[in-house]
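Hey Z.,

So I finally got round to the magnesium ion thing we talked about over coffee. Here's the setup:
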Amino acid sequence: MTEILAADAAGIARAAALLRAGRLVAFGTETVYGLGADATDARAVASVFEAKGRPRFNPLICHYADADAAFAHVEASDAARLLAERFWPGPLTLVLPRRAACPVAPLAGAGLDTLAVRVPAHPVARALLRAVDRPVAAPSANRSGQVSPTTAAHVLAGLGGRIAAVLDSGPCAVGVESSVLDLTGPRPFLLRPGGVSRETLEAAVGPVGLGITPAAEQSGGLRSPGLLVSHYAPSLPVRLDAAKVAGDEALLAFGPPLPGAGAVFQLSAARDTTEAAANLFSALRALDAQGTALGLRGIAAMPVPNEGLGLAINDRLQRAAAPRH
Ligand code: TXA
Ligand code: MG
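And the result:
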């Protein structure tokens, strides 16, 4: 049985006690729900991979209550401090060199000499992290390869019965995962576009490299081992850049919907990429369920511009549409 905990003082205390005892607890952040484990407990970390069915080589993000706690475990460059000052707490993950004395279990970082650290903004997540008083490793709380959860109900649909508890803090405001920025090279490199747009990052630190396209990954150019091409996949096939839609397809609409679809989910009638990001994963889940129930053959996605959070949306849609493996 998975306990469903309310996001009040008692629920947060219970969630923290379970985490400190090596159990798995899903919790809401401003981006998506994370599947938390005490990052210093190798057994707890191993059970995250097991619950998700996640390949072992995929490193996890460590979550901290504040920047001081994070920078005690990794070496912060000037750029890292500037970005932390500007964007933490918030949807930005920084990849930095681990300190020699870093107590995070090597498995959490998949054996790499770098560590991905993040200070989430959601007040319930921050209260939980303060109460746990240890780094919390937390991938998105979905089965590996499936759509990330943005509500407690999504978490239970995938992981109910496999984890100790879910701390229900309501729907996630941002709706796509954090931006993952690698600061270990000569210039910042965006490994995963996410909740802080590339434009916003560049305004703070100058040019940011980007190399997360499926093509780059296939040619071996990808630096983040966890960014599998096929990911975020609903069970129905996804077709990108739809200019027309058939009656036996479900439509992921962005702006005025194309006519004739068998089912429609509107990401943002006003074509606002931030609103669309917040709706994206719920939309994919809803269209998948509806389309399957109606016997539709796939999901057609209308084009979304690459500006603002559109880059993160298109990254997720390309993965959802990629050949499955
Ligand atoms: O918004 C988020 O980031 C959510 C919430 C729960 O915080 N978490 C999340 O975690 O999306 P996950 O595990 O699903 O994605 C982590 C990404 C993966 O693509 C992984 O490969 C990359 O970060 N990553 C983690 N550690 C890394 C490292 N040391 N070097 C390069 N990439 C790393
Ligand atoms: Mg994930």
